[in-house]
Amino acid sequence: MRQDFKLSSSQQLRTFDRALFDFLKHVYERPVSRSVFVEGRPDGEATLRTIDCTCPEMARELAAYIAEALSRRSAHGL
After folding, report:
1. Of 15, 24, 17, the residue nearest 76 (C-alpha)
2. What is the rounded distance in angstroms from the CA atom of residue 16 to the CA atom of residue 1?
3. Which of 1, 5, 19 lies closest to 56, judged by CA?
4. Could you tell me which of 5, 15, 57, 66 has the fewest CB atoms within 10 Å of its CB?
């Protein structure tokens, strides 16, 4: 399952990375292993980051976690 995030600032990129690594730190403590792939590429003035996960449930959970972190940062005007 793939999920794209279009990030237009360095703050969004840092928030994405921080949320991704925080999530992965906790998910790999779970007994069942799953693979997560992240790709980043330029998209005009922004950067497109794509997460791809072998487990659809975990992909949805990760995408929601990252979206929430980006939303919190946006709400605080950072």
Report:
1. 15
2. 18
3. 1
4. 57
